[in-house]
């Protein structure tokens, strides 16, 4: 079954249950819900995905989706076999230590030393249930009510914003430059006495933009000069193209940077739900305390399989990157050849492009709905990622092969 349909079946069921609940029952419970949750909104993509679900049932056309930030590149068979083996081991049926299996933290320590020359001890590494849990733990540990977190605009919203709000913080968006990169001057202009941290995400979801080492250095040093913590979400660190070399923010300032990453993208292990946090002991300790209270430990079999993944890293990344680069080039070629669509940055990371569609006479929301209804192609409106990108759409090429990308382009061109 199409993955988008599965997800939307779940959303549809939840939505229908809310609709069926009598108004009197809703009113009875409103006073029992925390005030912070009144500020949390579900993803603006729900309406689009609900429409996708309806069209999938009624259309003879296969839906071609550039929507979800997912990969259809299979997890390496050696990792799957390792998972099967560890499931037969009773150790995998039990809790691991709160911080994560020691052998996994040792392997992560070795990886960061070998790749970035960063010396993290196993006590400075926390294994989490995906990078989203890692982010949540960090926000809860760092933020007091009213503390501000600077975030990129556009960025991976609403997850960042909602998590910061739940933690009691306030979101302060920073507009990126025309190449969707972050300038130090924008940070300085956004600072207030309540600014506690800045959240970076390069390579970026949704834009595919990257930052050079000198650009990262300027941003990280600006944060340090102004005594704000850097939280660097580097989930796409290994998905870069055309000889771009990713700089880990902690290479610039080891003591003032919290690094968050994941096994989901680099190892095509999204369903394993495994991420991690790295930082100095003074920062990791309170983050670990939050993790203990809300998760206890990450999935034990996934952790054991992840050790194997780290040892197999080159044999995973090279073929995956070859395939993703083919898709990237085809996606850029297809979308920039369509009248009214333009690309203002060179997407050298992740598996997204973020084109401007305003010259079609539509904004991103209208364009997304138009493509879905008229030719059963799914793209995501840019309005879901920030305040400045209503004329853009996010196009994810992680789930379609080059032939399907070409087919999607043919459908769109027949309309525009």
């Amino acid at each position: 079954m199409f993955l988008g349909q599965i997800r939307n079946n779940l959303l549809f069921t939840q939505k229908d249950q809310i609709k069926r609940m009598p108004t009197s029952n809703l009113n009875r419970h409103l006073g029992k819900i925390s005030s912070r949750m009144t500020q949390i909104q579900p993803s603006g993509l729900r309406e689009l995905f609900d429409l996708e679900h309806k069209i999938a049932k009624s259309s003879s056309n296969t839906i071609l989706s550039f929507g979800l930030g997912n990969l259809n590149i299979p997890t390496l068979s050696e990792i799957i076999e390792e998972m099967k083996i560890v499931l037969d081991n009773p150790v995998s049926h039990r809790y691991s230590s709160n911080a994560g299996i020691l052998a996994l933290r040792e392997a992560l320590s070795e990886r960061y030393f070998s790749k970035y020359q960063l010396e993290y001890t196993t006590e400075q590494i926390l294994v989490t249930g995906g990078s989203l849990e890692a982010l949540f733990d960090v926000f809860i540990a760092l933020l007091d009510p009213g503390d501000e977190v600077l975030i990129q605009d556009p960025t991976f919203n609403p997850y960042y914003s909602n998590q910061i709000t739940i933690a009691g913080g306030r979101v302060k968006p920073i507009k990126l430059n025309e190449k969707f990169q972050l300038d130090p001057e924008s940070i300085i202009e956004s600072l207030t006495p309540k600014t506690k941290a800045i959240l970076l995400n390069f390579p970026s979801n949704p834009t595919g933009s990257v930052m050079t080492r000198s650009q990262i250095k300027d941003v990280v040093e600006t944060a340090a000069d102004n005594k704000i913590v850097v939280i660097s979400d580097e989930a796409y660190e290994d998905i870069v193209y055309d000889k771009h070399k990713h700089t880990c923010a902690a290479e610039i300032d080891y003591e003032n940077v919290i690094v968050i990453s994941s096994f989901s993208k680099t190892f095509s292990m999204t369903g394993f739900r495994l991420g991690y946090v790295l930082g100095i002991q003074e920062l990791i300790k309170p983050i670990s305390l939050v993790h203990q209270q809300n998760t206890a430990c990450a999935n034990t079999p996934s952790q054991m399989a992840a050790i194997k993944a780290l040892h197999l890293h080159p044999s995973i990344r090279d073929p995956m990157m070859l395939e993703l680069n083919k898709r990237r080039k085809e996606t850029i070629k297809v979308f920039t050849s369509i009248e009214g669509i333009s690309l203002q940055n060179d997407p050298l990371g992740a598996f997204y492009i973020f084109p401007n569609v305003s010259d079609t006479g539509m904004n991103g929301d209208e364009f997304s709905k138009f493509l879905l209804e008229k030719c059963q192609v799914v793209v995501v409106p840019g309005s879901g990622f920030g305040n400045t990108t209503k004329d853009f759409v996010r196009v994810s090429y992680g789930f379609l092969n080059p032939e399907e990308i070409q087919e999607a382009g043919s459908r769109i061109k027949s309309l525009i």
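The longest strand covers residues 148-153. The radius of gyration is 21 Å.
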